[in-house]
Amino acid sequence: QVQLVESGGGLVQPGGSLRLSCAASGSISSINNAHWYRQGPGWQRELVATITKSGSTNYADSVKGRFAISRDDAKNTVYLQMNSLKPEDTAVYYCNADIYTDWKLRNYWGQGTQVSVSS
Asked: What would the mean pLDDT of 54-73 be, rounded to a whole number?
């Protein structure tokens, strides 16, 4: 059984920084593409950032230049560094990844971690 567990959320003042982690555990051969999504109160879930297996990245326009997604395949972990945080970044952040397990590529979601930006 594969699990994704996010951590690193919390309350931060505007302009502050947080680093989210998404650790995959279980019977994992490798992680393919990985993504961070977020869902704020009353919003639909939106894609924030993507990192491919080769390390290419893509970002939502709203976070370009402020957020950075990265990965450490040795640790089966994906990160989201969030800088210059704004109140509108307040949301539950979810990790999503395509993972090779038992010779098949399957998609997994984490349980989410709350990020609150407020003075």
From this structure: 97
